[in-house]
Amino acid sequence: MSNRYKKSEALLERALKTVPLGSQTFSKSKTQLPVGVSPFFASRADGAYVWDVDGNKYVDFGNSLCAVTLGHNDPDVIRAVTDQLQKGTIYPLSHELEIQVAEKIVDMVPCAEMVRFGKNGSDATAGAIRLARAYTKRDHVLVCGYHGWQDWYIGSTTRDLGVPKAVKDLTHKFFYNDIQSFETKLEELKGKVAAVILEPVNVAAPEDDFLQRVKELTHRHGAILIFDETITGFRYANGGAQEFFNVIPDLATFGKGLANGYPLSAVAGRADIMKLMEEIFFSFTFGGETLSLAASLAVLNKLEREPVVSTLFKIGGLLIKELNQLIVEYNVGHIFSVAGYPVWSFLIIKDTEHYNSWELKTLFEQEMFANGIFSIGTHNMSYAHSESDIKTLMNAYRVFFDKVVSVHKNKNLMSVLQCDPLKPLFKVR
Description:
By secondary structure, the chain is an alpha/beta fold. The chain has 2 domains: 6-61 and 308-416, Aspartate Aminotransferase, domain 1, CATH 3.90.1150; 75-305, Aspartate Aminotransferase, domain 2. 40% of the residues lie in helices and 15% in strands. A 7-stranded mixed β-sheet has the order 4-10-9-8-7-5-6, with helices on both faces. Strands 1-2-3-13 form a 4-stranded mixed β-sheet. α9 (210-220) links the parallel β7 (193-198) and β8. α3 packs antiparallel against α12 (290-305) and α13 runs parallel beside α15 (387-410).
């Protein structure tokens, strides 16, 4: 047990006795955080920073898996939630906040004519798929990206244990920026596809009008186009990636930054499709919980009032520029590159002659955590990040690149690692 993470590792050992994996989320568990060099439990967070239970402070580039866009403990959100807390959290009746937040989403999001709320992104994507199946009276779904834990999607991945084969057989993958793979699937399933769901952007930028061509082909085949904007919503633009790329889907799903870390998701889209929410079953005890709705209203108002998204682009752009300069300086461009957009960028790690990408990613996490950065390979920007935080990140990258150059020269990565290397969970991007 390392001294730096002594309390974290003790809590992990305790958690594993009663909590499978010791965490509620795979990405926060020992599958993605190497034991021996990682914090596992946070004690608090504020602005751009998070502290673990051992008192170590980090610049947070995880931001709760992109759920925090404004920064931790944003004062406007805290004020709204605190005010609502005095009035109650949930009632035997609906609350006006449900209308207010829905109206705000309709105002901001191009495709939104009606809105229904859930709690997780998985709720929203599953609800959108059920809507599309009800509307088209078809069963098959084409997917591209990550769309949550429920059977209809996760059965298409290697994490399919427990999903009936009959369900798996209804979901089919296509590949981003590969319009031929998409068209081939549509032809194979001609007249059977209810919905096409994809993340409008993740690691790669759309090329050759990919999103517009997907929309045209989807509609040509009588299917519903769904953008999964769980991450991209309220991050790439106030109206999401659909506004950013000017390609408007039939339905869109939102979560994560919708309420700056409070549990809220949404399905939004064309009124004629959304009206079927009255016929399908999409109903939650906590769907109208008011603290998350109050948080969301504060978030959406702040997005309209302040230059949140433009600031994410500005600070994130500085990050990408300086990181690319370091990659050139250290002559490691054959191993590392930066992908994505300034608001959500990725360090891409390639296999080398001596080490695979997961071994190098383990070294990355080891050195980032040790040098006051919380990142597992992405830069999830928040409005709270400053140029000073980017400087701290670049200092950590220098330490990491120094180690990378050294271990390749001396071929001694395994002795430099203070833990076992990570293994992949499953690949979706």
